[in-house]
Specification:
Blueprint (H helix, E strand, L loop, with lengths): L3 H29 L4 H16 L14 H27 L8 E6 L5 H13 L3 E7 L4 E6 L5 H22 L2 H20 L12
Antiparallel strand pairs: 1-3, 2-3
């Protein structure tokens, strides 16, 4: 006999996976460029097969979505892409510019596979930075950053990455994750006001 709490937990897991299944079905329909019973049904079968049959780490959605924070995330992404595109374009045509790039390790504040993936994608979309590796066990992103000549440049890149993660968490992370990134933000601001040095080490918090 199945325990009621176990049954509830299973249904809750299925419910939290529904947005992912719907997104996969929608992607399948877009690929076929037509909405028919066959494409929708085959998309549903494929989505279930991908999420159930293939060996993948479980990706559970938080069940929380903040439209206002999501709007701010989208607007900030557009702003960052625009500004970074102009900066890279200027560097590309400036004959005096000498390339000075770095591979930087950034410790994320969460261990969510979904948040890590979205953060990596958001960073890579912005010209001048690209994620080259992810340490899923430790929550580390390794990224190649353009134009990092000074220690201040490295701090800026780390700050931008953590800011991107924070906006993603506030838009669609769990309440616990949102509380964690808010606390980390308060700590960073307190250190900045006190003039304390910013901690950064391999696997440490920037």
């Amino acid at each position: 006999m199945t325990h009621p709490s176990a049954e509830f937990s299973r249904w809750r897991s299925v419910w939290r996976q529904l947005p992912l299944l719907a997104a996969l079905v929608l992607l399948w329909v877009f690929l076929w460029d037509q909405v028919t019973v066959l494409t929708v049904v085959s998309g549903m079968v494929l989505a279930i097969a991908v999420t159930r049959a293939l060996y993948l780490p479980p990706v559970l959605l938080s069940g929380r979505f903040n439209p206002w924070r999501a709007l701010l995330l989208g607007l900030r992404m557009m702003f960052d892409v625009t500004v970074a595109s102009l900066q890279v374009a200027v560097l590309a045509i400036d004959p005096r510019w000498q390339p000075m790039n770095s591979i930087i390790a950034v410790q994320l504040l969460t261990r969510s596979d979904l948040v890590t993936t979205l953060t990596a994608e958001a960073i890579t979309v912005v010209p001048g930075t690209v994620v080259v590796d992810i340490d899923r066990e430790r929550g580390l992103l390794y990224l190649h950053a353009l134009g990092t000549r000074t220690e201040a440049d490295l701090h800026r890149v780390r700050r931008d990455v953590l800011g991107t993660e924070e906006r993603i968490v506030l838009a669609m992370g769990t309440r616990e994750q949102a509380a964690s990134v808010r606390e980390a933000r308060r700590e960073r601001r307190a250190r900045a006001r006190s003039g304390a040095p910013i901690e950064h080490q391999d696997g440490g918090r920037p």
